[in-house]
C-alpha cells in the first residue's frame, strides 16, 4: 500500500532547502570565508619579563588548538577585557618576546648606521629607544 507523503513534512523540507540555498548564496558555506566564531574562544595573555608587560589576544578553537598568532594589544584593552570577564592568562617569561628581539636587532643596525654617519642626535635617540624596549 502506497501512502501519500505527509504534507507538513514536505513543506518543512522545502523550507529547509530554501534557507540552505539562501545561506549558501550569501557565502555562508564558502571556503574563503572563516565563519568560525562559534568554534573559537579568545584568551587574553599578559607576559611579564622583568619589569615589562606585553599584552596579547590569542584565539583558540574549542578543542584547544591555537588559531593564528598572538596579536599584540594595549594594556587598556587587556584591562577592559579582564574586567568584562574574558579568560586571562599571566605568564612569567625569561626572554624577550620574538617581535621585541627583532625590533632590537633593527635598532642595532640603525645604531651602526648612525655611528657611520656620525649623527650624534640620531644615535642618542636610537640608544634611548633600545633601552626602553629591553627595559633598562
Secondary-structure topology with pairs:
Layout: H1 7-25, E1 40-49, E2 52-61, E3 66-72, H2 75-83, E4 88-92, H3 98-117, H4 120-134
Parallel strand pairs: 1-4
Antiparallel strand pairs: 1-2, 2-3
Helix pairs in contact: 3-4
Organism: Bacillus taeanensis
InterPro entries: IDEAL_dom, Virus_scaffolding_prot_C
Protein name: IDEAL domain-containing protein
Description:
This protein is an alpha+beta fold and 136 residues long. Among the domains are: 40-92, no CATH class; 98-134. The chain is 46% helix and 24% strand. α3 (98-117) packs antiparallel against α4 (120-134). The longest helix has 20 residues, at 98-117. This is IDEAL domain-containing protein. It holds the Pfam family IDEAL. InterPro entries: IDEAL_dom, Virus_scaffolding_prot_C. Residues 92-130 form the IDEAL domain.
Shape: elongated
Mean pLDDT: 78
β-strand amount: 15-25%
Output the structural class: alpha+beta
InterPro entries: IDEAL_dom, Virus_scaffolding_prot_C
Pfam families: IDEAL
Protein name: IDEAL domain-containing protein
Essential attributes:
136 residues, alpha+beta, 4-stranded mixed sheet, 46% helix, 24% strand, elongated
Quick take:
The protein is α+β, with helices and mostly antiparallel strands and 136 residues long.
Amino acid at each position: 500500500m502506497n501512502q501519500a507523503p505527509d504534507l507538513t513534512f514536505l513543506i518543512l523540507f522545502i523550507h529547509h532547502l530554501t534557507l540552505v540555498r539562501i545561506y549558501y548564496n550569501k557565502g555562508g558555506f564558502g571556503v574563503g570565508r572563516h565563519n568560525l566564531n562559534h568554534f573559537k574562544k579568545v584568551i587574553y595573555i599578559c607576559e611579564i619579563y622583568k619589569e615589562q608587560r606585553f599584552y596579547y589576544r590569542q584565539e583558540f578553537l574549542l578543542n584547544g588548538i591555537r588559531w593564528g598568532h598572538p596579536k599584540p594589544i594595549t594594556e587598556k584593552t587587556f584591562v577592559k577585557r579582564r574586567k568584562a570577564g574574558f579568560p586571562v592568562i599571566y605568564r612569567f617569561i625569561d626572554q624577550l618576546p620574538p617581535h621585541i628581539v627583532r625590533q632590537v636587532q633593527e635598532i642595532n643596525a640603525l645604531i651602526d648606521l648612525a655611528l657611520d654617519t656620525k649623527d650624534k642626535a640620531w644615535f642618542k635617540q636610537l640608544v634611548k629607544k633600545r633601552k626602553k624596549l629591553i627595559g633598562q
